[in-house]
């Protein structure tokens, strides 16, 4: 049985094994602490019965006007706990917070263009590729900006794909 709960400071000392996957971005402690302090409703952990961390999600809410959105900064599940729907449950939690509490128009995330399993999972969850960001990852690999419209975006304007790729300097950070 999995327990999903808010991430807490002590988890920062216990989640390193989840970040060992080469596709998972690892940040410095102050980055995680900033998210924990500013957006606690967007930072959750899945915990196994033996108290091992199975995976986590961290995100935030940002933007203005019709660009007001939830953002998935990181979602990862340890290899031994994959294919158990944990990522889906964590994503649903972030989407629900974005939709029902913060009244966002959409949720977005970035994924490596080569990460086919993650792209397929996000598509199953209702995400579409909104745009390609050239050399997004370390100036080498393209990233895909994927989005899912929420209930406030009745006309689904937020997920109409851009026709051309962009560069990282064209991204808007609010």
UniProtKB/TrEMBL annotation:
Belongs to the acetyltransferase family. ARD1 subfamily. This is N-acetyltransferase domain-containing protein. CDD domains: NAT_SF. GO terms for molecular function: protein-N-terminal amino-acid acetyltransferase activity. GO terms for cellular component: NatB complex. InterPro entries: Acyl_CoA_acyltransferase, GNAT_dom, NatB_acetyltransferase_subunit. Transmembrane segments: none annotated. The keyword Amino-acid biosynthesis does not apply. Keywords: Acyltransferase, Transferase. It comes from the Eukaryota. Pfam families: Acetyltransf_1 (PF00583). Residues 2-151 form the N-acetyltransferase domain.
């Amino acid at each position: 049985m999995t327990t999903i709960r808010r991430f807490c400071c002590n988890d920062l000392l216990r989640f390193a094994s989840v970040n060992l996957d080469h596709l998972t971005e690892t940040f410095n402690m102050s980055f995680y602490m900033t998210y924990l302090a500013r957006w606690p409703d967007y930072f959750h952990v899945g915990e196994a019965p033996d108290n091992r961390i199975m995976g986590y999600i961290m995100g935030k809410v940002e933007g203005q006007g019709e660009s007001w959105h939830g953002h998935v900064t990181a979602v990862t599940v340890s290899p031994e706990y994959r294919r158990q729907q944990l990522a889906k449950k964590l994503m649903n939690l972030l989407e629900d917070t974005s939709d029902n509490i913060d009244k966002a128009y959409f949720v977005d995330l970035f994924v490596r263009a080569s990460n086919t399993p993650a792209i397929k999972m996000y598509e199953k969850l209702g995400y579409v590729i909104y745009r390609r960001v050239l050399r997004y990852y370390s100036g080498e690999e393209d990233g895909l900006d994927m989005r899912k419209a929420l209930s406030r975006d009745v006309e689904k304007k937020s997920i109409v794909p851009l026709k051309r790729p962009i560069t990282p300097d064209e991204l808007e950070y609010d």
